[in-house]
Amino acid sequence: MFRFLVRRTVSALVILLIISALTFWLFYAVPRDPAQMSCGKNCTPDMLARISHNLGIDKPIPVQYWYWLKGVFVGRDYAGFGHCSAPCLGYSFANNEPVFGTIMDRLPLTLSLAFGAAVVFLVLGVGAGMIAAVKQGKFLDKFASSASLFGSSLQIYFVGYIALYFLVFKLGWLSQPNYTPITDNPFEWASGLLLPWLVLAIIYTANYTRMARSQLVEQLSEDYVRTARAKGLSRANVFFRFAWRGAMGPIVTVFGIDLGTLIGGAIITESTFSLQGVGRLAVASVIQSDLPMLLGVTVLAAGAIVFANVIVDAVYALIDPRIRLA
Question: Which of 13, 105, 314, 325 has the most neighbouring CB atoms within 10 Å?
Answer without folding.
Answer: 314
